[in-house]
Amino acid sequence: MQIGIVGFGNMGSALGEGLSKVWEVIAFDVDSSKSERALELGIGWASSLDFLLKNSQFILLAVKPKDAGKVLESLKGKLEDKVLVSIVAGLSLKKIEGILGQEKVIRCMPNLAVVVGKGTMAYVCNQWVSQEEEAQFCEGFSQCGILYKIEESLMDAFTALAGSGPAFVMKFISALCLAGVREGFNYNQAKDIVLSTIEGTLHMLKTFGGHPEEWISKVTSPSGTTIEGLKVLEESGFSGILMECIRRSTQRSKELG
What we know:
The chain is of the alpha/beta class.
């Protein structure tokens, strides 16, 4: 299977590296200096968009939202039964079809963890994508992480929760590290402690399941240290802040569309 990547930025290159484990990958970007990165990853470089189209069965659209319309116009009438996979935030199937017409399109939203093969990705196919083509897509992209097939109406919320999620998680980690420094650890010690704590907590929840609140109750002793900290989080509206964070990010994804 051959896939051509249009736009070789952070996400395009991360997906390209994962996909190259099972597919033949070539890339194209208006910034030709990115060819060095592609070649380092064992990914071919297309001298033109037409060359990429000629030598690919799947086309991955990985450009910035502001550039997507122009690129789609340049693809109009040239796909010739190929499958377009768009990872452009906020760009709906309807808008893509409005430019391309009745072409095969898969809308996909990955997050940056695809760079280590642990991405969280959602996708939805339009009516012209066959079951066989969907299966081929899943086979390739599963090399980059976990795939969730969802309703397109949830794609903006997924973009906020999983697409932007790594930034929010990193912010939480950064805050815990600084808290450790405030209490006397050096930064590297604090970071190691925080990361191992998070890793262990995730493994515990995945292994035994249950609701997070159940595990919170197991850690929280009467009049102990944990309840004192939880009180501060509740008074600060911690849960509400996160909910509003996701709501605002979801709204922004819709605005981009």
